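Worked example 2:
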Amino acid sequence: MAGQSGEEFVPLTCTGWSVTRKYVEKQNITLSLPKDILREAKHLAVDQGISLSGFLVEALKERVRRLREIERAGARQRALMRRRLKLGTQGRVTWKRDQLHAR
């Protein structure tokens, strides 16, 4: 069911007999895409049995998920660097280059 403001009643999860639903507000946009990419996207959407709009939504969701993952990983690494991990050297180099690089 679509509302006048672009809302749609979308099933989110289904476990056993209970179904959880949520209103998802949508907004129309205009895209300018290269013709070859658009043609390929249409074919892929047909192959998956979904609309082009649905195909693009899934592609964008995946891209956003990956970028968020990368951002979180970067934040974790920066936090580790700020904590200055203890490597057992007390900040001193106790080895020689030749010891590290056997030739």
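The beta strands are 7-15, 18-25. Residues 30-83 form one domain.
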